[in-house]
Amino acid sequence: MTTAKVTATPAPALLSVRDLGKSFPGRRGRTGRRGAPIKAVDGVSFDLAAGESLGLVGESGCGKSTTGRLIVRLLEPTAGSVHFDGGDISHLSAGEMRPLRRNIQMVFQDPHSSLNPRQTVARIIADPLLVQGWTRNDARRRATELMDLVGLIPEQLDRYPHEFSGGQAQRIGIARSLATSPRLLVADEPVSALDVSVQAQIVNLMERLRHELDLAYVFIAHDLSVVKRVCDRVAVMYLGRIVEIGDKHAVYGRPLHPYTRALLSAVPLPDPVAERQRERITLAGDPPSPAAPPPGCAFHPRCPKAEAVCRTERPLLRIGAPGQHSGQQPGRQPGEDREVACHFPGD
Ligand code: SF4
To answer: Residue 223's CB: how many other CB atoms inside 10 A?
Structure first.
């Protein structure tokens, strides 16, 4: 089944994800028989231009982190494709991926567990460069530059990760990811493990680096206010699929999918009066198991707008660039960068 091609800009895509899927074997029951496969990611498609930033948001277990891992090829897809800079990287071996690693890097959620505690910071940052064949002296020089770039003191290069706070450790992780001057960073919940007081500093840092270095981001987060700050576009995921994607101003200003509306209604507002007056949308129940997704629209058991057709027909994101659809999607402004998988999008 073909799902969406969503193109936001006329620039050629740096990253093209098409009908991407990842299934894991079902768990064994008491009888020893395996249950149904678990579709963690199911038909995800989007484009990302050079220097562009796309946020992937949704509840825990919606498949956003698995999508990130498929893009950087820490996992192999079971369906669909990932093209980077025009080349298909979906099924490259570890050896074939090695030269590409310099262009595609990942920032992890928990900085301390992603840094080797037995290595100095200098070694941690230089490691990707040594793999690419740099000399130790050149790699050390580059590590010194990177410490400065991420707001750390270069004199701390010979310290170990446990000597740094969580925020500083995440700066080290970011420095490591930037060592090879990548074009794409996949950041998997980069601030969610940090104290609230330092989250804003890391978000500011990532925003500054993106503009200074012309980086493209796939920014995975459950905090929609963080995504709004860092990203140009946002994709909302539910049960392994994208249910709404588009320009952040359009999506945040006027969400069209009932799930997006519910997520946004839970984001705290800075104005205390508006915060007291706004209406929260409470969804019934928990997300269904990806091993047994509901028929039709997977969101229908929790959707306040569900009708009979929602229980039988799965709504798809439409194929085509903004303004190029054969018909105008209900609820969407003409030419708007927005796609929604819903039979009844809108207010
Ligand atoms: Fe709700 Fe139906 Fe839209 Fe699904 S298709 S989100 S159930 S209105």
So the answer is: 16
pTM over 0.85: yes
* Ligand 1 atom, smallest distance to 257 CA: 6
State pLDDT tens for residues 187-201.
999 999 898 889 999
Largest Cα–Cα distance in the chain? 67
Binding pocket residue ranges, ligand 1, CB within 6 Å: 257-258, 297, 299-300, 303, 305-306, 310, 315, 342-344
Q: Do 33 and 4 contact (CB within 8 A), yes or no?
A: no
Q: At a CB cut-off of 8 Å and minimum separation 6, what does 162 contact? A: 112, 117
For ligand 1, the distance from its centroid to the CA atom of residue 60, given in whole angstroms, is 20
Per DSSP, the residues of 325-343 read: -SSPPTTPPTT-SEEE--S
Distance CA 62, CA 42 (A): 10
Given pLDDT bands bounded at 50, 70 and 90, which one contains residue 333? low
